[in-house]
Amino acid sequence: MLRLLTAPLVLTVLLMQSIRLALGQIWANKTRSALTTIGIVIGVASVTAVIAALTGLKAKILRDFESLGTNKIYVSPDWPRTGRFKNFNWRVIRFRPEQFDGLLDRCPSISDYTLMTERSRTVSYGVHSIDGARVYGINPSWHRIENRCHPGPAVHADG
Predict the structure, then answer these.
(1) Structural domains in the chain (count)
(2) Which positions ≥6 away from 122 have C-beta within 8 Å?
(3) Is residue 159 part of a domain?
(4) pLDDT tens-digit series, residues 35-85
């Protein structure tokens, strides 16, 4: 019973002796203690920086994916590297508008679609000309799909 009553006192004495011994060792080895402290601070700071960078990167990637839209899908033809179509002309590989006739009737989960084409062409206006300009062709539904307002009538300036 006496042992049970003196246990808290013994633990307190051991704790105080341990603290006194630790502080004595820190005071005796000041350089090593300072270097250890600096190492711990640098380690914690680097782990914190890596976690912050990864959190920021994750947020940016999620924001980029969300900007695509959850209800959009892009389909484009690709030239096969192997198989019977590998040497075909691009006119055979490309999508044609008539291939999309009736798409909305057959696929009720699709609310709208647009066809797009892109070419590099020479663009000229009056005496000015740009070689190799990228020219895009879109359907009017592109503006609804991309949540862009449809532009008004084109204003032509006399040149």
Answers:
(1) 2
(2) 129, 130, 131, 132, 133
(3) no
(4) 999 999 999 999 999 999 999 999 998 887 777 666 677 777 777 788 887
